[in-house]
Amino acid sequence: MLSRNQRVEPPWIPPEVQQFALNMARKLQANNHKGGWDDLNVWELFELLEGELDELADAIMHGSGQDVIDEAADVANFAMMIADLYRTAEDEK
User: Is residue 7 part of a domain?
Assistant: First the structure.
């Protein structure tokens, strides 16, 4: 498992994953004013993730392709935040 500060060299990452990660980073940057997730617990993040899943479903049914891409990145970001809480806990052991 990678620790928070370890990096994977980009050639190992498929182009689709690289593009999706850039979308995730763009969405994180756009919401940077909201602060980080260190003060949230896993269940708070999970509840936010569920809300993002609802927004993704709505985008799939009624939105544009860009709406779907943006909402999918939001879903992935909340899943990443949950994984990050556990990765941080593992690093502290």
Answer: no
